[in-house]
Amino acid sequence: MVKERARILVVGGGYVGMYTALRLQRKLKGEIRRGEVGITVVTPNPYMTYQPFLPEAAAGSISPRHVVVPLRRVLDRCDVISGEVTSIDHAVRTAAFTTLASVEENKAAELLGYDELVLAPGSVSRTLPIPGLAEHGIGFRTVEEAIGLRNHVIEQMDIASSTRDPAIRDAALTFVFVGGGFAGVEALAELEDMARYTARYYHNVQPEDMKWILVEAADRILPEVGQEMGRYTITQLRRRNIQVLLSTRLESCAGRVAVLSDGQRFPTRTVVWTAGVKPHPLLAATDLPRTGRGRLKCTAQLTVDGAEHAWSAGDAAAVPDVTAAEPGTETAPNAQHAVRQARVLGDNIAHVLHGEPLETYAHAYAGSVASLGWHKGVAQIHGRKLKGYPAWFMHRVYHLSRMPTSNRKARVLAEWTLAGLFRREIVSLGSLEHPRAEFEFAAGGKPPHSPSDDPEGS
Predict the structure, then answer these.
(1) Which residue from 17, 125, 356, 402 has the fewest beta carbons nearer than 10 Å?
(2) Is 288 a domain residue?
(3) Which residues are registered as beta bridge partners of 6?
(4) Last residue of a domain, one of 297, 324, 353
């Protein structure tokens, strides 16, 4: 049994953070009840986002509140702090963090001591110094970005429907997505499907009026599903009049013109950036060892190599893949590994507290599934290739099974059922981004939807 109170600090509330804390509060239930173990989770958002469902949330198939899991409800035996860890000094076992109250009180970062550290801040978008990207680019990693993009696309259709200027109309109906991985392909496919359906309710906007463009620097898309399924995906997208430009880079989007490396220029009001991720900047503010790519050096037991009582997994960690034939191979930074690593990580911390041997993380990659819109998809699972409706169905079954909590599973399933029985929602709630605009106008301020309210001009 645990003899002294052990303080466990979990940094991050994503896949690894939430599942590790969930595993710990189950494995150490008795110790927590007796006050022998305390678990603290520090995360910027008090919820975990199930990112594979973001494209469907953007398309309106799932309500945004159902693709997130409230941490305080799930981690009821943990102390959840809505804050951000800014630095970690593992030599003295302390982490500096700030909260919203810190800003209000004009206080410096507070220090939090710990005995065991789980560092799982995840990753952030990997951007490049492309002119205009910071001003006009739209990300696709959070539920806020997904719903904002949905509203933005429908608003562009409203603009195109109400203008007589052909240049404005053309720019509004041109949608450029940069990045041919899961996020880019699924987001583009789902939103194109949604916009195609929505166009039937506009008297002067037809699906063929819209330009959907996928820009990928490599010579293939969706490498996780294999070359054959990648080529199939390109064929299906092109049949929907979606331009797929391989071996092409975005050079600039300044002045609302997407300039590509092949010389093409597209006036556009929508540039969605999904071209990869990089380790969270917090990792550089620690004294823990990192790889050349900035991820934490970890062992197959999910400890940070050379740092006792420090653990990591997921996007932040370079974990050896013991199932790979080639030495030095690391596990892919995806949800499939992160969820499984979190369980082993939680078990291993419990083993350390109980003086038991550690487990080794070993999981052979099972395959991948991708949705390409309503009843369309591709998949490669255990070497078996699926496409069309079977792949789409497999995508839903797999991700529903991985969705945390039975509550969220039931809500998502209910929404899918209703979506199959009734028509899509085509409402844009872009005004949610400026909820006080109407009141400010009534109080004598500037009119709602003023261009100065929105630097994107949307």
Answers:
(1) 356
(2) yes
(3) 37
(4) 353
CATH code of the domain in which 111 resides? 3.50.50.60
> Are 387 and 368 in contact, with CB atoms under 8 Å apart?
no
Q: What is the pLDDT of residues 296-354, one digit of tens each?
A: 999 999 999 999 999 999 999 999 999 988 888 999 888 889 999 999 999 999 999 99
The domain tally of the chain equals 2
Rounded Cα distance between 58 and 54, Å, is 6
Cβ contacts of 30 within 8 Å, gap of 6 or more: none
Q: For residue 91, what are the domain limits?
A: 6-124+278-353
- Coil vs helix vs strand at 437: helix
Split at pLDDT 50, 70, 90, the class of 431 is low
**Residue 60 clears pLDDT 70, i.e. is over it:** yes
Which tokens is 436 given?
């006080």
Beta-strand runs (E) in 50-139: 68-70, 79-89, 94-99, 110-113, 116-119, 123-125, 137-138
Residue with structure tokens 């690894």?
Answer: 16
Give domain status of residue 455, yes or no: no
Residue 69 is classified by DSSP as E
Quickly tell me which residue has 């819209």 as its tokens.
Answer: 210
Range in 72-81, 358-367, 408-417 with the lowest mean pLDDT: 358-367
The burial of 227, by beta-carbon neighbours within 10 Å (0-12 exposed, 13-18 middle, 19 or more buried), is given as exposed
Distance CA 337, CA 207 (A): 39
DSSP letter string, 366-430? -EEEEE-STT-EEEEETTEEEESHHHHHHHHHHHHHHSSSHHHHHHHHHHHHHHHHSPPP----G
Residues 235 and 193 both lie in one domain: yes
DSSP 145-172: HHHHHHHHHHHHHHHHHH---HHHHHHH
Do 269 and 284 fall into the same domain?
A: no
